[in-house]
Amino acid sequence: MIALSEISASVARLQATFSTGKTKSAQWRIEQLKRIKQMTLENESKILEALKADLGKCELEAWNSEISYITGEVDHNIKHLAKWMAKRKVKTPILAQPGKSYIQAEPLGTVLIIGAWNYPYQLTLAPFVAAVAAGNCAVLKPSELAENTSKLLAELVPQYLDTDAFCVVEGGVEQTTEVLQQKFDHILYTGGETVGKIVMRAAAEHLTPVTLELGGKSPCVVDSNTNLDVTVNRIAWCKWMNAGQTCVAPDYVIVTRDFADEFLVKMKQKIEDFYGADAQKSPDYGRIINHRHWQRINNYLQNQNVVYGGKGDERDRYLEPTLVLNPDLDSPLMRDEIFGPILPIVVIDDLSDAAPLINSRPKPLAMYVFSRNDGFVDSLLGQTSAGNVCVNDGMMFMANQDLPFGGVGNSGMGSYCGQSGFDTFSHLKAIMKRSFALDLDVRYAPYSDKKLKMLKMLR
């Protein structure tokens, strides 16, 4: 573990490495990417154990959402790296002929990646993969709340990767504060809005660009004109994965009054199909990250109409899948991002009321709509804004590496995943090369009406 007093020197060491040009070659980048995959595969059992200890994740869920996600990102980046690194040709205007114009991606330098605790392996290493592919040195700061995964990353990264180019800083507020005082070329933070503002303030001191992956209250609109069995399957899967501690999980469902009872019956049954009558005994249901968050989530249920679930065991950090019907829209449950296993169901009179309700709140990280009516879907998407949208499924956009992942407004800024991640950690340098031939004097003084007319024609 890097001591507090060593953070500044560690960052300086990485910056010195970058200045040598070592990280710029495709060969070096690919080698480091392969080592990330090797690290992940060779230590799969240790990673699964850490995720189980931190969040109670079952093996399938942990493998699918964390381990295979990272190996898939590595493979995708290696496959496309040559194309992303190549010159991107663009047109050259007549006025600048003969000449050619192109964009050249170049690494930013030394970057800081601050991971999140809810998917502590994936959300630390996925942006790291992008930073490595783009040719940067990087400091990784895993979340201290997922202490077992953080400790494992601090142990594994120096064993597998270039220690002159990468380091892991563990610790809490004190260490994070110290690392944020250093000068970086980019910072990517995944987490909540409050800390996001702290990161932005620290970055502003150095004019460092930031990518913020935050969250928000992601709505899920369910039209009665849907395949209800498939709909509740998909909503339940993405809501109660990781015990609801997913930034793109549905935060509340919107249904019409004439459809609410039918939806509720199906959803209650689906919860029991997934986790049994007592989810605490299910090997597939996770746990809340710590007691503070357990108390926070449990407090959301005060004075609410709980129609299913609501019970918990603080000692076990367990809170059962819970449904709340018609919550007070001004209550903390509907103001804050829940980030837990509670699903409020908001009943409206008509589907036309869905967009105004969504727009009355800050822009979310994700939005979901289930409907067979393409006209309604298109209308809703045209009236609302969200970082990511999935129609007739939940968070499956995360499986498409050609789609950028990121927020909008309060849910974040910037994006990563696939090429968008490579571009986030690159400077896309604009370059024009011109010939010495045809040096027309039309742009040079002294000026005349004739030259002005010629310029207008050339434009």
Task: Describe it.
With 459 residues, this protein is α/β, with parallel strands linked by helices. It is 42% helix and 18% strand. The protein is built from 16 helices and 18 strands. A seven-stranded mixed sheet has the order 10-13-14-9-8-15-16. The protein has a six-stranded mixed sheet with strand order 5-4-3-6-7-17, sandwiched between helices. The protein has a three-stranded antiparallel sheet with strand order 1-2-18. The N and C termini lie far apart (60 Å).
List keywords for this structure.
459 residues, alpha/beta, Aldehyde Dehydrogenase, Chain A, domain 1, Aldehyde Dehydrogenase, Chain A, domain 2, 2 domains, 7-stranded mixed β-sheet, globular
Strand order of the largest sheet: 10-13-14-9-8-15-16
Unreliable residue stretches: none
Q: What kind of sheet is the major sheet?
A: 7 strands, mixed
Strand content range: 15-25%
Number of discrete helical segments: 16
Overall number of structural domains: 2
Task: Quote the average pLDDT.
Answer: 97
Looking at this structure, what is the CATH superfamily of the largest domain?
Aldehyde Dehydrogenase, Chain A, domain 1
Class by SSE composition = alpha/beta
**Alpha-carbon Rg, integer:** 25 Å
Helicity level: 40-55%
The CATH architecture term of the largest domain is 3-Layer(aba) Sandwich
Roughly how many Å apart are the termini?
Answer: 60 Å
The CATH class of the largest domain is identified as Alpha Beta
Instruction: Give the number of DSSP strands.
Output: 18
